[in-house]
Amino acid sequence: MKEINPAKPPTPLSDAAKAEIAALAERQRKANGVLMKAVNFVGGQVEDGLKLLPAQTRSQIDDLARVALRQSFDVASKSRTGRGQSIGSDRVHRLLGTLSGALGGFGGLPTALAELPVATTVIFRAVHHVAVEHGEDPDAEETKLECLAVFGAGGPGADDDGVNTAFIGARLSISGAAVNGLISKVAPRFAAVLSQKLATQAVPILGAAAGAGTNYAFIDYYVSMAHVHFGLRRLARVYGDQAVTDHFHAVLASGKLPQT
Question: pTM value?
Answer without folding.
Answer: 0.81
